[in-house]
Task: structure prediction
Amino acid sequence: MAVKLTPELETLHDQVHKSLGIDPRTPAYPHLSLCYITDKDAENGERQKFYDGLHLRKDGNGIALDCGDGGGAEDWLSEFIIKEIWVVSCEGLVEEWKVLDIVELQS
Result:
């Protein structure tokens, strides 16, 4: 999901890379990953199934996601409030990723 780049996010981006001492290589910045699907699960149709669950909102200003169980009951999500940010080392397979920190956001 694309996220609108604000001056605050740009500053955060710069500060993180400066503190790590690395050059930014983040062409999709900023974005929010809604899920991670392994290649094995993708072969079984999970990526397409997730994509099929996304629907454009009628007002054209974003997406809505049917989070229902697939049994006929619909449970639509069109926005949410983030309460924490997970800092994760994304080395290797998804199953091998390590949570380095969880940052609680102020409410």
